[in-house]
Amino acid sequence: MTCPSTSPPADTEAIIQVEGFRMDFGAKTVIDGLSFDVRRGETFGFLGGNGCGKTTTIRALLGIYQATAGTLHINGKPFRPEDGRTLGYLPEERGLYKKESVLDVMVYFGELKGLSRRAARGWSMDFLERVNLADKAKTRLDKLSGGQQQKVQLGVTIMSKPELLILDEPAKGFDPVNRRLLMDIITEQKRDGATVIMVTHQMEEVEQLCDRILLLKGGKAEAYGTVAEVQDHYGTRTATIAYTGVLPEDASYIPVEVRQTGAPGEFTAHLALTDAVDSAELLRHFVSLGVRVSSFTTSRTSLEDIFLRIYGADPALEGAL
Ligand SMILES: Nc1ncnc2c1ncn2[C@@H]1O[C@H](COP(=O)(O)OP(=O)(O)OP(=O)(O)O)[C@@H](O)[C@H]1O
């Protein structure tokens, strides 16, 4: 799966800039000289193993933690609480007023973010309808399941149409149907112009949603770039071809497996493509040499496999890191 073509160009202005960020807790260094930016309008995946410092970085960015060293800027300056109206933050720890009704809580936060009571109420009812919670509008929050509370908190986060959304594990506690709904909602936010930074462990969703990603390891950026760039650097590209004839030898691929599939001369082959090869060019080359191709598909190593290799210390990757 490739990176969405909606990725903002490299010269797009940065909305978040982190430079030389270091974070110590006592004698323990959690982040050690981290630098990255998030471009206006992109969806940015902030990834890494448990306890590697993702939430710590978000908290330092929002001034909840004081960085040991480095600069962390939103819109060119350190974040101040009064900038909060243009920011939607879904924290890792969920915390809404649990003894109040769902609608009252949503309207309260809507007004805090500058919406009129009427607008906040109308928006909230539409949102609750959309996420199948309209019948819970008058229910106390602590009577809702974890996933239902999570949906309410997501609503509170996006209600004021913030220009920057920071979502710390937004899919936590969601079943597959609600994860799909969450992805639709994030896609809409992006389409409406929001910049989204999301901490997540759901690699498939990262592949579908994110323009660029950063994988944190050992307090540093282990990988940083578009999804496709990271896949190409840490993984391989494979072509699967069904054909009749003989494939020419070529430096642009290594045949991993070739099987006869039907009548004599009919084969399916898996080819590991070398870095620079243009797969469409390779296909044209085969056809020009008389190979009759009935299907040709390419795929990249999944981010999930790359994550496992990086964080699971797969010996196959040790040389590459
Ligand atoms: N206030 C704190 N005091 C001391 N140590 C802390 C504090 N906050 C975080 N840490 C430590 O910093 C490290 C990074 O924690 P953090 O919550 O940022 O990880 P994370 O990448 O978000 O993990 P997860 O994916 O499990 O949510 C952990 O070892 C954690 O124990």
UniProtKB/TrEMBL annotation:
Q: What is this protein called?
A: ABC transporter ATP-binding protein
Q: Sorted alphabetically, which SUPFAM superfamilies does this protein's record hold? A: P-loop containing nucleoside triphosphate hydrolases
For this UniProt record, the keywords arranged alphabetically read as follows:
Antibiotic resistance, ATP-binding, Nucleotide-binding, Transport
Query: Which InterPro entries does the record associate with it?
Result: AAA+_ATPase (IPR003593), ABC_transporter-like_ATP-bd (IPR003439), ABC_transporter-like_CS (IPR017871), ABC_transporter_ATP-binding (IPR050763), DrrA1/2-like_C (IPR025302), P-loop_NTPase (IPR027417)
Domain ABC transporter stretches: 16-243
**According to Swiss-Prot or TrEMBL, what is its membrane topology?**
Peripheral membrane protein
PROSITE patterns hit by this protein:
ABC_TRANSPORTER_1, ABC_TRANSPORTER_2
Q: Name one Pfam family in it.
A: ABC_tran
The GO terms describing molecular function are: ATP binding
Family to which this protein belongs = Belongs to the ABC transporter superfamily.
Q: Where in the cell is it found?
A: Cell membrane
Q: Does the keyword Transport apply?
A: yes
Q: Which residues cross the membrane?
A: none
| Superkingdom per UniProt | Bacteria
Q: Which SMART domains match?
A: AAA
Q: Which organism is it from?
A: Arthrobacter methylotrophus
Transport as a keyword of this entry, yes or no, is: yes
Q: What is its main location?
A: membrane
